[in-house]
Amino acid sequence: EKGGYDHFMLKEIFEQPRSIRDTLRGRLLPDEGIISMSGVKEYGAKFENASRILFVACGTSWHAGLVAEYMFEEFARIPVEVEYASEFRYRNPIITEDDVVIAISQSGETADTLAAIELAKKKGATIFGICNVVGSSIARASHAGAYTHAGPEIGVASTKAFTAQVAVLALIALEIGRRKGALTESRFRSLISELDQIPKKVEQMLESEDMTVSIAEMYKDVSNFLYLGRGYNFPVALEGALKLKEISYIHAEGYPAAEMKHGPIALIDENMPVVVIATKNGQYEKVVSNIQEIKARNGKIIAVVNEGDETIREMADHVIEIPDTDEAFTPLITTIPLQLLSYHIAVMRGCNVDQPRNLAKSVTVE
Ligand code: M6R
């Protein structure tokens, strides 16, 4: 049942080229230059005229919502808020009929997320559900939705469900952007053909597993890890840290890289590994300065960079290269080595990766 892998988590990590392809299949049609999604079509006017899009979710699904914030604002030019379902539901939030609330949930059973959409529905918002489990409570409580087609996820740590969520959210953001005219036809077409290449690039990324094994060997005994990223890769830093703490029990924190000097830099010494997602984008130079600041304090740098980045190679202790893609889609690729790193560290520490202590696959109580 584990398909020859030692754990479900590893199997699910390696399934990602297929699960992302399944999520895009029949929806992303690059040859025709279109995206076809029935739920989005049906509620197209609601999305186009939305005064705001609110994402509600928990855990890893909340991280997918953060990636979507960048996508929806860039592609569709709609203001976005990303909410922890648990906070949103208890603070008497301001919701109007012009709001579209997108609930993201692998299981479709998370108690707080379900309660958040019930509340928003009562206040007249349109509810769109993004679930992996077909027929789940959140899917049923939504007006419309789009399933991720990741297939059953058994490992408690979410891996392929996350990338499928990001893929489906990319499709929706692109389609709304096209409908609103926020994206030009040529930009839309170039983005969809790039998105179509992602499964292949994820496959390529998985080939660098050995690199994550050797990094894991060096750092498996540390007590703390820091993860930094900016822009589209800030949520990836959060996700990398969550994945490490939940399965290896190493304390880890993710931060937007620029926040480092507002506190976390005090933690840096020769015992602190810092995973920096430093792909080429608008803020690249600034991330390079962060790396220099960490090195000046003897921190250890594990950098995720674009292929052929010599600048960072000279500064970092370890470099993991990713294939080039549009900045917006980098989370689908940069997440992969971080999943593998957590997995290998957890295995080396003798942890139960598929069933970490104190955690349940779906959190049906608040
Ligand atoms: O089923 P959901 O996506 O609603 O679950 C949300 C979180 O409980 C979940 O993502 C959790 O954080 C995972 N264990 C993360 O790997």
From TrEMBL:
Keywords: Aminotransferase, Cytoplasm, Glutamine amidotransferase, Repeat, Transferase. Residues 43-182, 215-356 form the SIS domain. GO terms for biological process: amino sugar biosynthetic process; carbohydrate metabolic process; fructose 6-phosphate metabolic process; protein N-linked glycosylation; UDP-N-acetylglucosamine metabolic process. One of its GO terms (molecular function) is carbohydrate derivative binding. Its main location: cytoplasm. The keyword Transferase applies. It comes from the Bacteria. The active site is at 361 (for fru-6p isomerization activity). GO terms for cellular component: cytosol. Its EC number is 2.6.1.16. It catalyses: D-fructose 6-phosphate + L-glutamine = D-glucosamine 6-phosphate + L-glutamate. The keyword Lipid metabolism does not apply. It is found in: Cytoplasm. Homodimer. Catalyzes the first step in hexosamine metabolism, converting fructose-6P into glucosamine-6P using glutamine as a nitrogen source. This is Glutamine--fructose-6-phosphate aminotransferase [isomerizing]. It comes from Salibacter halophilus. The lineage of its organism: Bacteria, Pseudomonadati, Bacteroidota, Flavobacteriia, Flavobacteriales. The chain holds residues 249 to 614 of 614 of the full protein.
